[in-house]
Amino acid sequence: MAISNPARSFVACFIVLLAFTTIASAEIWYMDSDADGFGNPAETIDLPSQPQGYVNNGDDCDDTDPNINPGADEICNGIDDDCDVIIDENAIDAVAFYLDTDGDGFGSPLDVIYACEPPEGWSQYDGDCDDTDPNVYPGADEFCNGIDDDCDAIIDENAVDAVAFYLDTDGDGFGSPLDVVYACAPPMGWSPYGDDCDDNDPSVNPGAVEICNGIDDDCDAQVDEPGSAGSTTYYEDQDQDGYGDTGIQQAFCSPPSGWAPTPGDCDDLNPMIHPDAVDICDGLDNDCNGIVDDGMTGVWYWPDVDTDGYGDSEASPTIYCSAPGSGWAENDTDCDDNDPQIHPAAIDVCDGYDNDCDGVLDDGLTAALWYADLDGDGYGDEGDPGTLYCQSPGVDWSLDNTDCDDGDANVNPGAPDVWDGVDNDCDGSIDGISLQVDDVDNDQGRVVRVSWARHGEDAPATTYDVTGYALYRRIDDAKTAGAELKAAPPGQWDFVSIAPAHGEDLYHVLAPTLGDSNSYQTFWSVFFVRAQTPDPFTFFDSAIGTGYSIDNLAPGVPPGLLVEPVPGGSKLTWDESLDADLQYFRIYRGASAGFIIDAGSLVHLTPQLTWTDPDADPSEPFYKVTAVDFNGNEGEPAVVEWTTGIDGATPSAPVLHPNRPNPFNPTTTFAFELPRDGRAGLTIHSLDGRVVATLVDTDLPAGPHTAVWHGDYNDGRAAPSGVYLARLVAGERTISRRVTLVR
Hints:
- The chain is about 5% helix and about 30% strand.
- It contains two helices and 40 strands.
- The strands form twelve sheets. Strands 21, 22, 24, 25 and 26 form a five-stranded antiparallel β-sheet that branches. A four-stranded mixed β-sheet has the order 31-28-27-33, with no helix packed on it. A four-stranded antiparallel β-sheet has the order 37-36-39-40, with no helix packed on it.
């Protein structure tokens, strides 16, 4: 029989109760590896009390980095620092960015956001005072345009196109070069001209008249220069005889050395000849009365070098009042004054000379020029000037001087031409082919016409039977070498074309050149022709031919020339030229519509389609513009179609002004003028000619009009950035201008 033990029963019950209590109070703990107070939700443990390295939350999204936890600050690092599944939001180091509508790199201070990276169309720089104009921003160049370009709250200060003005103390319209300011408009008491040499005297300036007063009145660094008001006329007196040359006169304020107040000297190099001299018998007009040797008898004598009594017909005579002696004759009939056997009284003999000076060689005798025939082929040397004989001088002479090689009996005009690289028949061509290279008239250049006579084998039933001609153009040293280049090969050659052989007497081929000749240099083109046969290894090369091409056509008249007054001068604009080889434009200014264009009226050169004349002169209100191509050809001048700002005049032809702004985004405005009522169309085109948008297509009255393009297609889609053409069509006139859209 078991006996219970109350004490053991109590202990057992207590242990069971304790175990139950411990299990019931256990808690989940999360590992905190980076000791930032936030645990890893993936690594847990259940214990009734907090173990070392564990926390009671599992909110850490990266338990290896103590800087990443729900309580961390978000910073710009591309990491979710605060474990809210959003990266870099509301970062404590975010940067302010400002809306940059016009894309000039500066935003409006009124539109700001904070972000780690700049959004598209935003800038980290603010201060743009006009965010619709890309040319206006802090740091931009200031221009004379009435706009605060650099956003410093000051308008037109230190403008890059400011004009120099000079202090005009004496009010004569010319300022001192020592006192200069730069401004967009002239301040009171200042002048745009800074060449006054005495700004305290209003009578002294570059526009004043120089007078004889010991002062440099016109500021040209010369005092009382010739021609000054109040000066006296003097005549150049080189021989210092007191009489000056009537044809050389100058006005001086005081008598200069080498000049005389009295004119009339007929020989200012001889002090013995002047109006007060006494005439003597010396063949001269000593007293300058227009009569040689007054009242004295003089005789003309000619030099007689060979002393045969007959003077030289080609010499100048001298007048003598008495016979000058041996070596002179009173006639000029000797046709050879170096040979005493030749004169008018001599008897003509058969010696190849005009012995009796009657203009006929060997009168009544049969004489001929004979030429040396060294190779005995019956043809004389073409380089021999010939010797006159009245009969044949022997077998080594010939009356024919057409032998081009008198050292080879097989080369003469009667020899057959064979393919040996020699001009056998002396016809000027080697092996039957000679080239001629000529410019093609009335073209834009870069083309020549190459011509050659047919080859002797270019005929039926010949030995080699030429089938065609291949034309080659030299590519090395051709620009400057010209005709001195030798026949091919050697050299580097481009194949140009083939002309089939048809037995033609003359072949012509139009061949391109590598450049044109102009007034600065000759751009040579060098060619040769290869006569081809059915055998590819049998062919015949010609000698080279050289020539050059010329651009014969000048550019057209620049269309749409417009002149309008603007602050600081007269503004000229004209339309784009269609000439592909256009280089630049020349601008001329004159006092009448029909003024002559020359170096004196030329005022400016420019490749642009507009120019403002800063020196516009009301006395010269007329302009002409010409186009010049790359070869120096200048076209006819443009006629001013309209000038604005003059009594509100209506234009004589349609005018399309440059759009403003340009480049633009998002909109730009076009201003245009119509000379009369009628239909008008204004369209935007891509550079390949497609219509992008139609802005105007209706009847309009004469006068000014405007149209706006919003940078979109006709269907409303936004057009991409790029260059477009605005085209105005009115009546028979079409005007185009370039437009640049920047997104």
